[in-house]
Amino acid sequence: MSTWLRLLNSWKLQTRFTLLNHINCIRYSSRISDELLDKARSIVGDNNFTISEAARLLHGRDESYHVPLPPDLILFPTSTKQVSEIAKLCTIHKIPMIPFGTGTGLEGGVGATRGGVTLNMTRMDQILEVSTDDLFATVRPGVTRSRLNNHIRDTGMWFPIDPGADASLCGMVVTSASGTNAVRYGTMKENVINMEVVLANGDVINTSGTDCRAKKSSAGYNLTGLFVGCEGTLGIMTAATLRLYGIPESVSSAVCSFPSVYDAISTATMVIQAGIPVARLEFLDDVMMSACNKYSGLSYDETASLFLEFHGSSNSVEEQAELAKEIAKDNNSGEFQWTTDPEERSRLWKARHDALYASKALLPGCEVYITDVCVPMSNLPDVIVKSKQAISESGCIAPIVGHVGDGNFHCCFLLKPGDNEELKKVREIAMWMGRLAISARGTCTGEHGVGRGKIQLVQEQYGEDGISLMRNIKFALDPDNIMNPGKVITL
């Protein structure tokens, strides 16, 4: 096909897209005035603007069980200036703004509870800077975890925070995500150096100071920490500077099974206490192991199990694996299988990352309700055992998997579509688990965030004084409550 013909076809598609949007504008009735629609379109352009029903439904939901809540309008900004102009426009008209990344959240954080404007940030997808000397990368919100790692692979560096889904990095920041590598490399909270944020009134700030790339600072309030995990309720992130790490010289992975949850978690606890710098330390219960075996073609024992990974030099990863093996043996483990073979390691961790799909395959056609909690490791065995008992008594199917190296675990409840009684029962168990975690000196969510699913639990965890302070912060930065309203806290 000639260049001119390609350009002609491209022009036809763009013209059709613009025309369809124009027709939709005529037919569409919403809480947004025609004046605001025209001004919004003038900011981002016709090709970065839509109010189609299909797009709105898509942007009103994430990967959670929550009922979709579509926005009235979707904009695709391509610069910080455009985001700022949109924020100023929405402030004038008191219209809610909801940031959207890849839609992989698990607590309904992108639903438009009061309608309004969704800002799809995926077209701001530049990797702005990578420093091999200072070990950082600055990215726009549309850059995903895998894209950054592919971009920097040849430099000998990587970004290790891995929540499983190929989420946008800035989406990971605003939910304070973590994942399988957090036990060694920390969560997003520990790996954000600076952020560019657009506030509700359109002001643009840098949370650590303009162009600051220092690894630590004691200057002023910790604004970076304030915006990490805010889920878009305080501002819209337009860039993030993240820590990078050297790719380890050698990696070994291991799997071992145990006769009980207590034996498995005791092993995990002792591995951490022994100072073994384990990079990944994952727990899978008997139900999850059965699901993974069936889905990924494995043949591991279908009992409580640990998946481990060690990073370092060739000698050190062997030493770490042997030490962990001895600890596991003292806790009645079965065979401790470990390897440095890349194919074997990839197969093991692919099975772990496919755990959600493996769970869903246990009940074909099911819907999934996922919840997570996090507790101190000393309380983890009791909390997991009590949770499994509650699940068993309810008659539900809910495989459990966890990042037990930092006390975090997840339940994947499998629901028959349209069964409201079962959904009600599962919600009650999930709330009970959150309260159990809080009573065990833990938190109602370790990495999924609050969204609109855990607002009540957050209120119980922090108490009225803590929530009152959060409300004051929210009101100071967003007096009209237009930044992703209905999430994290109630006003």
TrEMBL record:
Alphabetical GO biological process terms: lactate catabolic process
Primary site of residence: mitochondrion
A GO molecular function held by the record: FAD binding
InterPro entries: FAD-bd_oxidored_4_C, FAD-bd_PCMH, FAD-bd_PCMH-like_sf, FAD-bd_PCMH_sub2, FAD-linked_Oxase-like_C, Oxid_FAD_bind_N, Vanillyl_alc_oxidase_C-sub2
Recorded catalytic activity of this chain's protein: (R)-lactate + 2 Fe(III)-[cytochrome c] = 2 Fe(II)-[cytochrome c] + pyruvate + 2 H(+)
Alphabetical UniProt keywords: Acetylation, FAD, Flavoprotein, Mitochondrion, Oxidoreductase, Transit peptide
Residue spans crossing the bilayer: none
Subunit details: Interacts with CSRP3.
Protein name (record): Probable D-lactate dehydrogenase, mitochondrial
Organism of provenance: Oopsacas minuta
